[in-house]
Amino acid sequence: MNTLEIILNERDFNYKIFKKINDGETSEIFLGEFNGRKSIFKLTKRNNFNLIINEYLKSEVIENISKKNVTPNILFYEKKIGLLIYEYIEIESKNKIVKNIQSIGEQLKKFHQIKFNKRTKTYKDQFNLYLNKLNSESKNNYLKEAIELFNDLKVHENENVFSHNDLNANNILMSKNNIFFIDFEYSSINNKYFDISKIIDSLNLNNSEISKFLFGYGIEGNTKEVITNIKRWSLMNTYTELIWAKYINKFNKNFLNEAYLKLLTSKIKQQKL
Fold first, then answer.
1. CA distances from 241 to 17, 44, 144, 148, 230 (A)
2. Region for residue 221 given its phi and psi (left: phi exceeds 0; alpha: psi -120 to 50; beta: otherwise)
C-alpha cells in the first residue's frame, strides 16, 4: 500500500487507484476514481527540497481558483498533507491549443484576477530561497546576471498578480468546451508578464498568434514596451528554470542531468542576443 492509499483509507474515502502517471521532483500523480468519478490524484512528496510550494492550497486561494473555472473541477484538497484531487477531463489535441490562443489569453486574464492576501508568498520569496542555497556559486555569471535582471524588473511590482509561474504547454489543457490550467504548486504573487512570456515561449507563438493571445488577455498591440517586457521576462523565466535546476541538484545530485542544464544555458545566450 502506497502513501496515497494510506491517506485515502485514513479518511475512509470511496476511491480506486488505477496507476501512477507521473513522478516529479515535488509530487506524484495518479489516475483513478473518486466517489465514482474518473479523477486525478496529486500528492506532494514529503522530501520536496524545502521549496516554497502549494500556496494555491490555502483555502481562500483554491476556492477563488475554483470559482474562476480555470482548472478542472476540484473534488478535494488538504494543504497540510499536500493532496489535491480533481476531475479527469478528456483533452483535445495539443495542436488545437494554439488555434484557440485568444481564448487562452482570456483564461489567463481570469486566472490573474484571483484574489490573494498579504500573507501569500511571492516570487521574490522563492527566488531568494534559491539564491541562499546557491551562495557558493555567487561568482558565476548566470547568477549575477539573473540577480541584476530581477532587481531591475522589481520596479514593475504594480503589475503583480496571482501568477501560475509554470505555464508550459503540458500545464495547459483543452477540452471540447473549455481551457484549463493545472499544476499550480509554484504559483505565487508575481508580475503578469512572467506567465505571459512563458506561454509565448513554450507554445512557440509567431507574431500573429502573439497578437491574438495578448488581445485575449486585454493587451492591445505589440508596442515597443510590451515586446520589451515579454523579452525580459522570458529571459527571467529561463534564468529561473536554470537556478531552480541547480537548486534541485544541490539536494539531490544529478537529479536533473547535465544536458538539460546546458540546454538552458544555451537558451539564455540566444535570448540575450
1. 32, 20, 15, 16, 16
2. left
95 domain residue, yes or no: no
pTM here is 0.93
Over residues 224-253, the pLDDT tens digits come to: 999 999 999 999 999 999 999 888 888 777
Q: Which amino acid is at 203?
A: L
* Spatial distance between the Cα atoms of 174 and 170, rounded to a whole number of angstroms: 11
Spatial distance between the Cα atoms of 126 and 140, rounded to a whole number of angstroms: 19
3-state SS class at 72: coil
Do 80 and 129 lie in one domain? The reply is no
Asked whether 136 and 245 are in contact (CB, 8 A), the reply is: no
Per residue in 17-72, pLDDT (tens digit) is 999 999 988 899 999 999 999 999 999 987 666 777 777 877 778 888 888 999 99
Q: What gap in Å lies between CA 259 and CA 123, rounded to an integer? A: 26
Q: Where are the beta strands (DSSP E) in the chain?
A: 15-23, 27-34, 37-44, 74-78, 83-87, 160-163, 172-174, 179-181, 188-191
Number of domains in the chain: 2
Q: Are residues 151 and 199 in the same domain?
A: yes
CATH number of the structural domain spanning residue 110: 3.90.1200.10
**210 and 131 within one domain:** yes
Q: Note whether 36 and 164 are same-domain residues.
A: no
Q: Is 237 part of any domain?
A: yes
Residue 74: which domain range? 3-87
CA distances from 41 to 12, 26, 29, 90, 165 (A): 16, 14, 6, 16, 21
Residue 27 carries which side chain, given as an amino acid letter?
S
Asked whether residue 173 falls in the same domain as residue 73, the answer is no
Count of CB atoms situated within 10 Å of the CB of 131: 17
- H-run or E-run covering 192: helix 192-202
